[in-house]
Design a protein that fits this description.
binds zinc ion, 9 helices, four-stranded antiparallel β-sheet, seven-stranded mixed β-sheet
Length: 319
């Protein structure tokens, strides 16, 4: 029984393989944006699967209550310019992390031949603007009207509404991308099927989502920031993400992980561990900043020997 204002439905079986779900975490509050309720996370006991999901699951019509204080409703913090921040940027450039983060930001399409691109869950349109500057003809989809208003101010073409309700043309896009979106939706399989429908034959899908087999999840456990209840409804590993894409009919499905953003996950997770919550935006302070930077270095080294330890899963597939 969930004592919260967000109504829920029971979801005891794995939404991916229908396997039994064991309780992994119990009664977690929203540590990031203060949505009401206490939330349980199950893990599929089928060792060939291992998906994580919320049980009980918020009802689709009540999901907006989980987003009332979300990122896309706030101004982006101003980039800092002090000596420490200049040194930090130098470290990023020298270590290759700056390049890795740029590749990840554009879902490894930076050097692809540009064509027509759709970003699903484009938020305020920053990534779409970057794709446009790389020569892509871009369109976005977003369900949050506040974010759409901000994206439209960048002269971007944004479709407001859930993807399946938009009736976008079939066989239309050369690439469909989504960054930290698939973990938020009620029916990830239907979403990927719709992505496949709007892609041209031979078109490219790229998806990024948190990785449950990451070093951060292993280290921070229930305080791992990417659990993000009640917004992250399903959480994937490379294996489950690849399986989902295959189930949706894609071919050449490949999933791997990247540690490029481990620092941000560590910063939030350490804050949650110490204070029970984390607020995005303000500078973390020197001690937390250094601690999360050290975690980044450790994560960048770990992934060289444990390839599934990155904080984010990347999926690429072809229609
Ligand atoms: Zn399963």
């Amino acid at each position: 029984m969930n004592d919260c204002a967000i109504r829920t439905r029971d979801c005891p079986r794995c939404p991916l393989c229908q396997g039994e779900g064991g309780g992994l975490y119990c009664r977690l509050p929203d540590r990031l944006f203060g949505a009401p309720g206490l939330w349980n996370i199950r893990q599929c006991a089928n060792t060939a699967c291992g998906l994580l999901w919320l049980d009980p699951m918020p009802l689709a019509e009540d999901l907006p209550f989980a987003y009332q204080d979300y990122f896309t409703h706030k101004d982006k913090p101003v980039e800092r310019t002090g000596m420490i921040h200049r040194l930090y940027r130098l470290l990023l450039a020298v270590s290759g992390l700056a390049r890795q983060r740029a590749e990840l930001r554009t879902l490894f399409l930076r050097h692809a031949l540009p064509g027509r691109l759709l970003e699903v869950g484009c938020g305020t349109g920053e990534r779409l603007a970057e794709f446009r500057s790389l020569g892509w003809e871009v369109e976005g989809q977003e369900i949050d009207p506040v974010a759409v208003e901000r994206a439209t101010a960048r002269s971007l073409c944004i479709h407001l509404g859930a993807l399946p309700n938009l009736s976008l043309p079939e066989n239309h896009f050369d690439a469909v991308v989504m960054n930290h979106v698939i973990e938020h939706v009620q029916d990830p399989l239907s979403l990927l099927c719709e992505c496949r429908r709007v892609l041209k034959t031979g078109g490219h899908l790229a998806v990024v989502t948190p990785n449950t087999t990451s070093l951060g999840h292993r280290c921070y456990g229930s305080c791992w920031m990417a659990l993000d209840p009640p917004r992250h409804l399903h959480l994937f590993s490379p294996k489950t993400l690849q399986q989902l894409a295959c189930n949706a009919g894609f071919r050449d499905c490949q999933a791997w992980t990247t540690a490029a953003n481990a620092q941000f996950v560590a910063e939030g997770s350490i804050a949650i561990q110490r204070t029970g919550h984390h607020r995005f935006g303000p500078s973390p302070g020197l001690a937390l900043g250094l601690e999360s930077l050290l975690f980044q270095l450790r994560a960048s080294a770990t992934i060289l020997v444990r390839k599934h330890s990155g904080e984010e899963c990347v999926l690429t597939a072809t229609k």
